Structure to design on (652 residues):
């Protein structure tokens, strides 16, 4: 019963953070919402005895992709308070149906679409075996993604410093 | 031995980024060019190299890489386009640090693309498509202009959707087929399991987004046109092909079981992409945006050929992928050359530029004629193969559309030629001269490949480049 309640709480957090990511008026907050949703997915994956998938989700989606998002946003033009509120209202008006739709799809998929088939999960013991003895190439791919992300953060955050120091530079490059 | 194609680029990347005293961007350029030549050499000599035997340490690694003629086509394309992009980058990027970052990210991209074309597992395919994609986001935003960042962001968002679809598809395949290898999925399809079909369809949907086909093309024009010139060469020439379109061909070649419904989807997506891309290209006034829409149209031909559902269709799609890599890179190299002299890619300000930049104008004309499928250039032969494949598979209506759309392509390229390259030179064009050698070398090399692959096409099967046709006999 306790497990059941924990699952419900995690799923509720997942939906709430996903909704926050979609409806948040500030891009930065939206990315934080997205990262939180990824963390919730990671917890779900760990609870389903799939730590391998959990580790990938946490490092790539919650960590790396969020870092690239944030650094990209830091380079984008800032909006006025008025336009931010306007965008937020517009977004709520357009996407109000998303949370109930998400719920509906979730129920439909779990109850109707997917047959009840046995899934062989990779347990904690098996992670090392999988990573080091079976999927060498995917591990290398993970390293390559992290390398690319590291370059990205260096390149884009360097841009952020330039923008702060020389506030007019972006305006000049776009000709606005 | 195949593992070297993935490990060497990473080793070069790490080596180049050690804190060497007095290291300069020329060293980075030489490193990337060496990798590009190695790719082309590997493509041509792959059968001999595989026969050499395994290196003891490498045989311990379970990479599960496989190579066939399709892999060789992609390796050759990656080598040629990466070499051209690096030369353009060396010439167009003024900042030393930016050139080094570009070269480093280019190598990450090479690693991702090499692994992608050597894999035989859907999960690994997903991982390495992401490696290439992450490098591409950053490359597009490299010069930190607002438009470039916007282009990168748009690509990132749509790519995230594709990623979610592909990962979900891998989950479905794992559940229903028991494994994610191509062999397991093929067996699952043959066994008639509906969830495997669903998984494959969802994976292909993700690939449509990555490949920039209609209606998932929204990210592509902005990304191609706002990216730095060298990055545009790379993206248009190989990145979208290796990460999206190649995987579609691979599925059709190694996994696909002839199926009317999937064929119909490919035929419709291909046809709509051809028409929408061509019509949208006609309305552009910016050279790079026009080339971007033209790319959507040309990718449509590749998808259409796969829709034929036959071996000839796959051969035609593969040969058109190679040709498109070459002539589209050439067009973007030429647009970079024009931008370097004129400071813009706005076609309304380019009147008569062909007279001032004769080599650039000539190579651009060769690329355009090849794209339009005019003989004797390489594009003519691949489009002919596509039309024959459609005709032989009884998709006559789609073959007719392909021919008509090719005329449309010729039409918009001729209008563009007339606007930008011919006629009386405008005042802005009056003072400029031919592009520098850094642009001319890749342009001439790419034009030479386009001409030679076309003129020598009848002899291709008897040469060491027969892999470009997957070693299959021609239909006549």
């Amino acid at each position: 019963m306790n497990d059941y309640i924990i699952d419900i709480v995690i799923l509720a957090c997942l939906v709430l953070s996903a909704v926050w990511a979609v409806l948040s008026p500030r891009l930065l907050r939206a990315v934080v919402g997205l990262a939180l949703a990824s963390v919730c997915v990671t917890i779900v994956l760990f609870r389903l005895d799939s730590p391998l998938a959990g580790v990938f989700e946490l490092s790539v989606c919650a960590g790396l992709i969020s870092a690239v998002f944030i650094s990209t946003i830091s380079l984008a033009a800032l909006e006025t308070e008025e336009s931010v509120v306007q965008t937020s209202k517009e977004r709520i008006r357009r996407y109000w149906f998303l949370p109930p739709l998400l719920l509906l799809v979730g129920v439909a998929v779990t109850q109707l679409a997917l047959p009840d088939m046995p899934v062989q999960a990779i347990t904690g013991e098996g992670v090392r075996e999988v990573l080091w003895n079976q999927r060498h190439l995917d591990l290398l791919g993970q390293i390559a993604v992290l390398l690319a992300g590291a370059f990205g953060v260096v390149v884009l955050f360097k841009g952020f410093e330039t923008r702060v120091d020389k506030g007019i530079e972006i305006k000049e490059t776009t000709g606005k | 031995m195949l593992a070297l194609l993935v490990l060497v680029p990473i080793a070069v990347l790490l080596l180049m980024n050690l804190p060497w005293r007095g290291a300069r961007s020329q060293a980075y350029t030489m490193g990337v060019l060496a990798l590009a030549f190695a790719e082309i050499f590997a493509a041509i000599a792959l059968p001999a190299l595989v026969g050499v035997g395994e290196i003891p340490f490498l045989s311990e690694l379970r990479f599960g890489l496989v190579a066939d003629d399709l892999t060789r086509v992609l390796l050759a394309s990656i080598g040629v386009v990466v070499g051209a992009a690096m030369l353009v980058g060396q010439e167009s990027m003024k900042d030393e640090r930016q050139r080094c970052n570009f070269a480093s990210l280019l190598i990450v991209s090479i690693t991702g693309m090499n692994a992608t074309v050597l894999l035989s597992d859907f999960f690994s395919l997903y991982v390495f498509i992401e490696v290439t994609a992450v490098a591409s986001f950053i490359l597009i935003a490299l010069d930190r202009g607002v438009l470039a960042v916007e282009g990168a962001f748009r690509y990132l968002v749509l790519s995230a959707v594709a990623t979610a679809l592909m990962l979900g598809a891998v989950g479905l395949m794992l559940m229903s087929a028991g494994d994610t290898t191509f062999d397991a999925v093929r067996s699952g399809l043959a066994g008639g399991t509906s969830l495997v079909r669903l998984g494959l369809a969802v994976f292909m949907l993700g690939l449509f987004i990555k490949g920039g086909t209609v209606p998932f093309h929204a990210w592509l024009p902005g990304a191609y046109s706002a990216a730095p010139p060298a990055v545009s060469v790379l993206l248009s020439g190989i990145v979208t092909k290796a990460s999206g379109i190649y995987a579609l061909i691979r599925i059709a070649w190694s996994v696909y079981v002839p199926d009317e419904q999937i064929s119909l989807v490919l035929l419709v997506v291909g046809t709509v992409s051809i028409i929408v891309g061509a019509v949208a290209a006609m309305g552009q006034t910016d050279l790079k945006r026009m080339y971007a829409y033209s790319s959507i149209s040309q990718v449509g031909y590749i998808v259409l050929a796969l829709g034929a559902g036959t071996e000839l269709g796959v051969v035609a799609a593969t040969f058109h992928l190679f040709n498109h890599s070459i002539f589209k890179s050439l067009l973007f190299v030429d647009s970079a050359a024009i931008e370097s002299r004129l400071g813009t890619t706005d076609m309304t300000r380019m009147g008569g530029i062909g007279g001032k930049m004769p080599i650039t104008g000539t190579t651009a004309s060769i690329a355009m004629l090849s794209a339009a499928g005019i003989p004797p250039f390489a594009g003519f032969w691949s489009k002919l193969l596509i039309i024959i494949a459609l005709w032989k598979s009884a998709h006559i209506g789609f073959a007719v559309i392909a021919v008509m759309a090719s005329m449309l392509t010729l039409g918009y390229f001729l209008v563009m030629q007339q606007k930008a390259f011919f006629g009386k030179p405008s005042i802005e064009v009056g003072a400029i001269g031919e592009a520098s050698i850094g642009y001319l070398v890749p342009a001439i090399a790419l034009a030479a490949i386009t001409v030679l692959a076309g003129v020598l096409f009848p002899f291709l099967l008897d040469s060491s480049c027969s892999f470009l046709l997957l070693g299959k006999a021609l239909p006549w």
About this structure: Chain B has a mean pLDDT of 88. The interface with chain A takes residues 6-7, 10, 13, 61-65, 101, 104-105, 108, 111-112, 115, 119, 123-124, 127-128, 130-131, 134-135, 137-138, 141-147, 149-150, 152-153, 156, 160, 174-176, 195 of chain B (CB under 8 Å). The radius of gyration of chain B is 21 Å.
